[in-house]
């Protein structure tokens, strides 16, 4: 702990850079720096000031619009009127907690668990994805009597002490404790191209990791994986890549926790939850981000016997978890997803994006791979001359992210090598938005010289 | 972990009891039990169904009113119109996160830190008190390079893994890890009656606890104390009881973390923060519950050098922490506290309550002590015949809590012996509310026979 040196973050504003930010922004950044300080990073070489939003658009104080192709929290759209009305109505009534009776939380909970396989019958509410992950780990510990956790090597699961301890993507100063072991995530660009082989390789790594834990004297409690491996660079295919690994986890006496904070609530278009694509049965499912469209609500869904064992022995109460206002927002989110058929929209518009990105990749070798599902897409940038070994190009990813920002299209980068463009817009993203994104990306790419070609040309 | 047996919770509904709950409530409880399960306890022998609220009142679905003398979250009143309007306006605009520029969070942060001593200059936002405590512990760890934490023996600091690990009030199955040691809280009813001696005794216990940690090979990182020791039974006097202990903590190389989740934001009437009454200088201050009047927002306030060291080395981002909507609610809360002079109100109405309770205690030996400050008051119930040793009477506390509930006045009990009546209403509590509470309490006491007298009468 306390290792020296500035911690690196992909796509963050550098106050020491000479980027033009304008007088107003500059004064605000200075005040912000004084009172919020080092923990608060801004996105982009030139930060974006956000004053309002509407659907998939954000607006700065001058009314200039930005296309939001990044934010997964406002899944049913910025400033969604239905969420707003539901919250307002409930705030005008009352906003207490779960130790008084109220039918709204029961109605919502029944509706929520009905979206899961039958054996997942109960839900506990928390405020953030971090709190939900933290609670899932506590439940797994309680049920198994063990502490060992297996994660992927660039996982992100949260910011509480327990969830940060399983989040190596937070950087090298975030030293993992002894009860945590990492395994490389499947790498669709570099793994064996045969699907079964990739899944088998991942399962073997999990098997070895559990053995490694046991050699340390740590018993195995849980395998936790983001169902689309978002921070590992987005791995949506092969589709059942997690299945053999989950079988290993169960055989070795641990639980499987599906982190659905990012893929959940229909983002993938094909299903409500990412784990369904893998034909696996998680013991615990963690929900978050889009659940309340920005109102802080998250949850753990699980088996009755696990929830009962935990709730019987451990006192758990979360003051803000499942309050009437959060539940009102969450209810409006489900209404919007269902009534506006947003899973279908994610599949359709995601398809438009996927086609357009693939078309770009066909003509530009720097786009090493385009992958994804629904409205969660990734473009992996590589050095164009480095084939067949796909050398990651984080510099290009960074240039593209900031180039798109200059054209008022918001995305970011991620992945172990920080070379993966992350496209993850609100679920109300439309085909015309997809076209705008594709046009801007095409322009940025043509304006950005290919270093490999430049340097090899005499 | 996994110890058998139902975990005990003071003042919880027992589904196996024969209490009359009515057909509607009964059906709802059954559905609730199925989908929310064991982690979800209800208050009171007869649970209360809450449909709406207004100021210090709650209403059931039939419009029957309950006086809320328990809830500290809706500090500026249930269904507060100003908070509602602020949230609605912001939800109609936008609700993103802290990686875009926005002036609201900077304005609010400057205003918030101005309520603290000058050396506390920076703030980091989280969603719940638990998350804020968890973060404060992470910062303390980072700054000191040590892990040992000293807490009071019935402390409650939260529900994440790290904050539950310093919350012995969660019960015997919540086994504390090796880096945590407890010290008995000052006990105003049983400690030496000399103020200086009580503070010195507490400081000595902290000193010994740090030594105990070091003997285990654990270096000392932080002393964390709720500034009014809420879950230890509410200790508001002697006023500077924490000062010598804080000096010890600092001399031994640790930080002092003031947990202001309960006393903060003016509840004590005398000051914005409980630690100010102790003339101590915390290194980190944890805020929560009333901060957004029910919108999930909490924070850690601290010294620039600590925040900088943490933020520089550790990547910290909280998706829902400090979102525009949370900040809008928190801003409205400060407006309400200031414009309606709620600190003054807490002092005045708290005084009315204190006088009335003291008057009751003068005529009833079962009220062993009345204590508190502002709108945070405690009545400690003891066996009337057990003087001078004040034997706690949790049974009576439980009878009074449920007796008051039957008279539609909501309070609860707490403390190491569960014999302390906890009176902690919204800050908009008025003198007429105080009168209603005092009348109901007087009636309940006269209707509840004194066991000691009954059993000793032939």
Structure write-up:
Two copies of one chain form a homodimer. With 458 residues, chain A is an alpha/beta fold. The first copy, chain A, is built from 13 helices and 15 strands. Chain A has helices at residues 23-35, 81-93, 103-113, 129-144, 161-164, 195-215, 243-251, 304-313, 324-339, 342-363, 394-406, 431-447, 451-456; strands at residues 52-54, 57-59, 65-68, 122-126, 148-152, 180-183, 220-226, 255-259, 284-287, 298-302, 367-373, 376-381, 409-410, 412-414, 420-423. Chain A has a seven-stranded mixed sheet, with helices on both faces. In chain A, strands 1-2-3-13 form a four-stranded mixed sheet. In chain A, α7 (243-251) links the parallel β7 and β8. Chains A and B meet through α1, α2, α3, β4 and α4 of A and α1, α2, α3, β4 and α4 of B.
